């Protein structure tokens, strides 16, 4: 994990391998942002002119490296674009700072230490820069033979042969003795560590992370951070009547698991239940996915990874709220034992489900977990899942959908997502779509109308939430796994989508501030 420190040093005197400054698009060209004054002075007030000579415009995410001028301790200056300069009296929004810091951190792979002299107007801005830098300083190297340095060599290689992540970040102007700054950056370190935990799990190939191995990860974290954990194996699931989990997992040689992992606080008055879809590999089952759709299906447990990481983060931060995570873990494979289209499963709730498509398996494992979570009567339940391709068609690859049985709760989660810099959008649950899931042989079918498929999935899940319990569903199918070029603090592969939103929801639940 990249180290983070706060420093009162100026950008000119900071001892580092590189100093990072912001540059914005002004009315007449590039302009240095707040925090870059000492660096601009070292360039004789001509930093913007030098950057423009090198092609810099100040566009958001643009990165320009140049040799440092005399008078700077760091040998390299890295200027990162912040987009349009704010109007007089206004400041950069936190997500702009977060992405800029992430872009800089990615560009500094292989660097030991960098001083970030980006605009730090307050503790919130410091947290945003810290988060962005730490999110950007990431590489998944567990399965690379070149990850460890060769004997006698310095440094290590990161993913795809690139250098290891930036090792140390110093926030210039970070006020290390200020309680708000200190608390904000300490939280950022915990948040980044847990997002990296989620990313690592999502990026781990399915042959190394099956339901049993995932459950073991939860047990290890529980021991380390003082969490309560319970793992239901296939025998316990059968005894308990968890037909959804068993039905999805029966085609695999690796049986399913249901993990309950909980952070409790002696002063807590509220309980938040988080339910995560944990399909460690999704072939589609008998309803086999077509060629080209299988290669990234190790990421179908991203919801469970987000829930797991959030519970650990809540414990590490000592939040005065009880947060219970339910990880519904299974591997969806085709075999002679697999559930067939047309089969009927009896769920943990006692309801029967006609399985019309075995590739609509996430809702089946979530249904069992939602019913079980409801038995504990939490104040609210939020489930998180890479659930439907339909949600990606509706919202694209960077935005997750939010559905709920309570409009105010849905609005609150949307506001929280915007606050923490995650793209999300509230979605409806039209009552007329429920009829499409009527079955002639069971209580409900796992498929309905094709149009509005993401909404149909939400309506299915709603059937398994306990009476009177506030519930929301986050479909993170789009942003959970990034397949295009990296940007900002987002790398290729697992992203840790929704962890920031879930953690802030837990914090606001603890404080009683849910709007």
From TrEMBL:
<keyword id="KW-0378">Hydrolase</keyword>
<keyword id="KW-0479">Metal-binding</keyword>
<feature type="binding site">
    <location>
        <position position="277"/>
    </location>
    <ligand>
        <name>Mn(2+) 2</name>
    </ligand>
</feature>
<feature type="binding site">
    <location>
        <position position="282"/>
    </location>
    <ligand>
        <name>Mn(2+) 1</name>
    </ligand>
</feature>
<feature type="active site">
    <location>
        <position position="363"/>
    </location>
</feature>
<keyword id="KW-0645">Protease</keyword>
<dbReference type="Pfam" id="PF00883">
    <property type="entry name" value="Peptidase_M17"/>
</dbReference>
<dbReference type="InterPro" id="IPR000819">
    <property type="entry name" value="Peptidase_M17_C"/>
</dbReference>
<feature type="domain" description="Cytosol aminopeptidase">
    <location>
        <begin position="357"/>
        <end position="364"/>
    </location>
</feature>
<dbReference type="InterPro" id="IPR011356">
    <property type="entry name" value="Leucine_aapep/pepB"/>
</dbReference>
<comment type="function">
    <text>Presumably involved in the processing and regular turnover of intracellular proteins. Catalyzes the removal of unsubstituted N-terminal amino acids from various peptides.</text>
</comment>
<dbReference type="Pfam" id="PF02789">
    <property type="entry name" value="Peptidase_M17_N"/>
</dbReference>
<dbReference type="GO" id="GO:0004177">
    <property type="term" value="F:aminopeptidase activity"/>
</dbReference>
<protein>
    <recommendedName>
        <fullName>Probable cytosol aminopeptidase</fullName>
        <ecNumber>3.4.11.1</ecNumber>
        <ecNumber>3.4.11.10</ecNumber>
    </recommendedName>
</protein>
<feature type="binding site">
    <location>
        <position position="300"/>
    </location>
    <ligand>
        <name>Mn(2+) 2</name>
    </ligand>
</feature>
<dbReference type="InterPro" id="IPR043472">
    <property type="entry name" value="Macro_dom-like"/>
</dbReference>
<feature type="active site">
    <location>
        <position position="289"/>
    </location>
</feature>
<keyword id="KW-0963">Cytoplasm</keyword>
<feature type="binding site">
    <location>
        <position position="361"/>
    </location>
    <ligand>
        <name>Mn(2+) 1</name>
    </ligand>
</feature>
<feature type="binding site">
    <location>
        <position position="282"/>
    </location>
    <ligand>
        <name>Mn(2+) 2</name>
    </ligand>
</feature>
<keyword id="KW-0031">Aminopeptidase</keyword>
<feature type="binding site">
    <location>
        <position position="361"/>
    </location>
    <ligand>
        <name>Mn(2+) 2</name>
    </ligand>
</feature>
<comment type="similarity">
    <text>Belongs to the peptidase M17 family.</text>
</comment>
<dbReference type="InterPro" id="IPR023042">
    <property type="entry name" value="Peptidase_M17_leu_NH2_pept"/>
</dbReference>
<dbReference type="InterPro" id="IPR008283">
    <property type="entry name" value="Peptidase_M17_N"/>
</dbReference>
<keyword id="KW-0464">Manganese</keyword>
<feature type="binding site">
    <location>
        <position position="359"/>
    </location>
    <ligand>
        <name>Mn(2+) 1</name>
    </ligand>
</feature>
């Amino acid at each position: 994990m990249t180290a983070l420190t706060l420093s009162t040093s100026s950008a000119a005197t900071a001892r580092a391998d590189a100093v990072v400054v912001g540059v914005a698009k002004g009315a007449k060209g590039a302009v240095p942002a707040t925090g870059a004054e000492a660096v601009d002075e070292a360039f004789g007030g001509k930093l913007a002119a030098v950057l423009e000579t090198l092609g810099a415009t100040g566009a958001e995410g643009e990165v320009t490296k140049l040799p440092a001028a005399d008078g700077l301790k760091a040998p390299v200056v890295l200027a990162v674009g912040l987009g349009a300069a704010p109007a007089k009296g206004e400041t950069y929004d936190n997500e702009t700072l977060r992405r800029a810091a992430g872009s800089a951190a990615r560009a500094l792979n292989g660097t030991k230490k960098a001083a970030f002299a980006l605009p730090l107007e307050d503790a919130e801005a410091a947290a945003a820069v810290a988060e962005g830098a730490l999110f950007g300083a990431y590489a998944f190297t567990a399965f690379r033979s070149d990850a460890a340095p060769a004997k006698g060599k310095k440094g290590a290689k990161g993913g795809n042969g690139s250098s290891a992540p930036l090792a140390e970040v110093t926030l210039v102007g970070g006020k290390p003795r200020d309680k708000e700054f200190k608390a904000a950056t300490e939280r950022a370190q915990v948040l980044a560590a847990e997002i990296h935990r989620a990313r690592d799990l999502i990026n781990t190939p399915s042959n190394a992370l099956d339901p049993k191995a995932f459950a073991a990860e939860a047990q290890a974290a529980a021991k380390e951070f003082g969490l309560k954990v319970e793992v239901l194996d296939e025998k316990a699931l059968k005894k308990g009547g968890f037909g959804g989990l068993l039905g999805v997992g029966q085609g695999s040689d690796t049986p399913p698991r249901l993990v309950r992992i909980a952070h409790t606080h002696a002063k807590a008055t509220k309980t938040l239940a988080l339910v995560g879809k944990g399909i460690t590999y999704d072939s589609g089952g008998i309803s086999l996915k077509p060629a080209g759709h299988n290669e990234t299906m190790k990421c179908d447990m991203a919801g469970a990874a987000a829930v797991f990481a959030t519970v650990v983060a809540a414990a590490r931060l000592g939040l005065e709220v009880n947060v219970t995570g339910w990880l519904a873990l299974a591997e969806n494979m085709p075999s002679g034992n697999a559930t067939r289209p047309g089969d009927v499963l009896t769920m943990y709730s006692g309801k029967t489900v006609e399985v019309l498509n075995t590739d609509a398996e996430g809702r089946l494992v979530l249904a069992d977990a939602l019913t079980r979570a409801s038995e504990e009567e939490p104040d609210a339940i939020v489930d998180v899942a890479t659930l439907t391709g339909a949600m990606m068609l509706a919202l694209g690859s960077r935005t997750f959908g939010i559905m709920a049985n309570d409009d105010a709760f849905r609005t609150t989660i949307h506001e929280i997502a915007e606050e923490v810099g995650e793209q999300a959008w509230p979605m409806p649950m039209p009552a007329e779509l429920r009829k499409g899931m009527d079955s002639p042989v069971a209580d409900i079918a796992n498929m309905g109308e094709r149009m509005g498929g993401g909404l149909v999935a939400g309506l299915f899940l709603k059937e398994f939430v306990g009476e009177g319990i506030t519930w929301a569903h986050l479909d993170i199918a789009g942003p959970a796994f990034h397949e295009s070029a990296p940007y900002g603090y987002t790398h290729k592969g697992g992203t840790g989508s929704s962890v920031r939103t879930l953690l802030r929801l837990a914090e606001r639940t603890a404080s009683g501030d849910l709007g």
